[in-house]
Every structure is written in C-alpha cells, then in structure tokens.
C-alpha cells in the first residue's frame, strides 16, 4: 500500500515531468483514446487486407491446380478446348482482376518479362470452342461437365463460366451459341452451391434477347415474363414484353 | 476415341484460328511458362504479405490487450510507471515501425485526426520511471517483473524492453541506470524463450562501457572478456580490453 499511495499521489499530481514533456495520468488517459481508435482502424485494415489476400490465394490455388494437371502432358491438357479456354481466361480477364489487387511490383515485372495471352486469344479460344462444338456436334451439357472424352478431360464449368461463354457469343452477335450457353448457365445455376456468382435475371435477359433474334418470339416472351416474375419493375423487360406481344399479334394477324 | 483424335488433329494443326489470333497447343504450351512463373511470384508475394500482416496483427493484439486492461480503470493502470512507459512506447516507436508496413491511408488519417505522444513523451516516461525507482528505492527486478504493487500491476518486461530502457539511460549519459537495466536485460535474456529479440553482445557492450564510466574497471574488463568469448574478433572489445588493462595497470602502479 505504501507504493500504491505514492504512485497515485505522484502521478495524479503530474510529477512525471521531464524537460518540456509531461506524462500525467490525465494526459495518458487522453492519449489512450488514440490507442482505442488505432486498434479499430488496424482491425478493419487487417480484415480488408486478409480478404484481399484471400482472393489472391484463391486465384493462386486455381492456377496451381491447373499447372499440376497440365505439366508434362500439355498436349493432352490443351487438347480439350474447355481447358484451353479456361487457361486463356485465367491469364487474361482473371489475371487483370488480380493484378489490380496484388502488388504492382509483380505485375510490372511479369508484364515486362513474360508473354501473356491477349484478350483476342481469350475470345478466340471461346469462339474456337464453339466452332468445334458445331463441327462435331458436341452436346453443350457434356462439354460443360467435362465429359466429352476420356483422354482430354476438363473440369466442370460453373454457371458464371457458362455465362461468360454466352456473353462472348452474344458480343459476337452469335445468338445461336448465346442461347446454348445461357441455357447451360441457367441449368448450372440451379446446381451451383454459390448462387451469387451470376445473377439469374442477367442470364434470362440475354436468353430472351438471343431467343427473339433466333425468331422464337413466343419463347422470348415466356423468358421475359420469367424475368418480370423475379423483378416486377424490370424496365427493359416490361418494354420488351409489350414489344414481343405486338410482334406476335402482328405475325398472327398477318399470317 | 473419336473426339480425341479429332481434337488432337485439329489443335496440333493450329486450327483454333479466329481473326488474327490463334491459340495452337504450341502457343498455349509456350504461354504455360508464364503461368508457372506467375504461380511462383504470387506464392512468394503472398508469403511476404502474410508475414507483413502477421507483424501488424501482433502489434494489434498487444494494444488490444493493453486496452482491455486499462479501459475503465485508467488511473490504476497508468499509475504504474511501467504501464505508462509501455503505453507511450506503443504509440511512438512501435507505431512508427507499424506505420511503415501498414496502409498509408490509416497512418495519414490517424496522424491528422488523433494526438499521438511525442518521442519526448516516450523518453520522458522512461526517465520518470527511473526517477521513481531512485526516490522509492524500487528494485529493478521487481519493477521488471511487474511485482511492485498489488493495485498497480504491470506485465513482465522482456529482455528487449529492459534493453530499451537501458539504451534511453545510456543516451542520456545516465550510466547508473544503464547498468541496472542492462543487467536486468541480461537476466531476462537467460529466461526469455525468444532469445533473438536482442543480441547478448549488444547488452554486454553497453554494460561494459557503463561499468567503466561508473569507475569499476575490473568489472568492465571482465564483461569485455565475456564479449570476446562470444565474438573473438570483436574489434572495439579487443581495443577496450587493452585500454582497460592499461588503466588498471596504471592505477595499480600509481597507488
């Protein structure tokens, strides 16, 4: 108790004096708020940083997995157009996303010293895949599930990957393949555990447009009504619904 | 086997052609080296990043622990000069170290909006501690082990923290307290599990000089010889050994 009382007396009386600085308990208690705020800021900083690294790590695991499967048997691996497509996607669109959140140092060094596929390689590999699909009448579901061949295996495509393929066809005004891959995206979406990766309405939106472009107005209308079931105030879908109904009415009256 | 052969034929012949881009197996296999290198670079990037965040997290845990102990009972907590010293150290020297490896955004925001103790507050709190130590004849070991009082507890100081206190005394030409705290650093070093945090030779080096300044040449010589036992080619220690031996010889012959 002797020390306790002395400390208390000494410190409350601001006796921790040295030259111009002083560190009274009042002063320290005031500075203590800085520490409380610092802890908060560091906590949320760490949380964000760990999330960022988690994304980088997930990407790393995907490409490490790809390397394990392809290394030493590149011809077999890339012989499957799904693998060729996914590989090209990883080093183009996916890497652009990672590059932004990882170190600039890596990105600069990699960009200077290593050849990456171009964005045209990426769309090219998707279009080549669809061409093979036509030539050999490959079933989209089988292709998406990696089941086209014993020797040239690929993994299963996710809903978002099917959607990406559909998007490339769509951008290329290839509505025939847009239909196939958007339908496949829809089917995969039902099975996917992670349903947030692609929005069902986005798939249906592309599906409706591609269907109408392929001349099937009744189906385009049905898909549009499905969009409105999910999002009743979807403006484009409301307009399209009227538009398709008009077209169908005119077709019927014209025939 | 049908598809297999077709794919092989198609792809080896570079048939994955679209406009100007082409993605033959040869081309993909070439680009595959980029992926292998990318995986390596990302792996070491992640490793470094996790290490960096680990340091930030360790600091965060130290200050969170401090907050838990001090909050709501600030007067008791800061009533112990060891706590006042450690707290000030966390928000000055330790934070400067973390600031460099954490986000500039936090550091800027904190610096603009919150008051941190100054470096003088830091050395001031160490010197105040030593002054209290003299006034109330507090035993250094008891102080370092947090055992001076029931009501104003502090945690145990590590070897490096005792060394830091000794360094402040040393820089202040206060060799009396340098001796006390360097000796305490040495004792703690024997007990510390993490012996890499401070170098024994650095402690001995300060101890020898402070001892000689306090006039105990025989002990300064003994400590210097202990340095040479650890690092036989320690240049300053070799010179000091001769110097102390000369001084002792002259003292003896002069007396």
TrEMBL record, chains A, B:
<protein>
    <recommendedName>
        <fullName>procollagen-proline 4-dioxygenase</fullName>
    </recommendedName>
</protein>
<comment type="similarity">
    <text>Belongs to the P4HA family.</text>
</comment>
<comment type="function">
    <text>Catalyzes the post-translational formation of 4-hydroxyproline in -Xaa-Pro-Gly- sequences in collagens and other proteins.</text>
</comment>
<feature type="signal peptide">
    <location>
        <begin position="1"/>
        <end position="19"/>
    </location>
</feature>
């Amino acid at each position: 108790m002797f020390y306790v009382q002395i400390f208390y007396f000494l410190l409350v009386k601001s006796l921790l004096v040295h030259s111009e600085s002083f560190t009274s308990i009042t002063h320290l208690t005031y500075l203590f708020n800085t520490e409380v705020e610092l802890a908060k800021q560091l906590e949320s900083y760490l949380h964000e940083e760990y999330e960022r690294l988690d994304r980088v790590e997930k990407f790393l695991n995907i490409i490490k997995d790809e390397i394990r499967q392809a290394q030493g048997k590149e011809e077999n691996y890339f012989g499957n157009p799904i693998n060729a497509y996914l590989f090209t996607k990883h080093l183009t669109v996916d890497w652009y996303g990672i590059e932004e959140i990882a170190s600039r140092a890596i990105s600069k060094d990699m960009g200077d010293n290593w050849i990456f596929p171009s964005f045209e390689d990426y769309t090219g590999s998707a279009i080549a895949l669809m061409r093979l699909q036509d030539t050999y009448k490959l079933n989209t579901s089988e292709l998406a599930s990696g089941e086209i061949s014993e020797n040239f295996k690929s993994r299963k495509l996710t809903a978002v990957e099917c959607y990406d393929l559909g998007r490339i066809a769509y951008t290329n005004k290839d509505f025939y393949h847009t239909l196939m891959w958007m339908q496949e995206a829809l089917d995969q979406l039902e099975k996917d555990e992670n349903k947030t990766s692609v929005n069902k309405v986005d798939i249906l939106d592309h599906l409706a447009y591609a269907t109408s472009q392929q001349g099937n107005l009744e189906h385009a209308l049905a898909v549009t009504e499905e969009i409105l079931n999910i999002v009743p105030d979807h403006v484009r879908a409301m307009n399209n619904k009227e538009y398709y109904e008009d077209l169908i009415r005119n077709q019927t009256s014209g025939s």
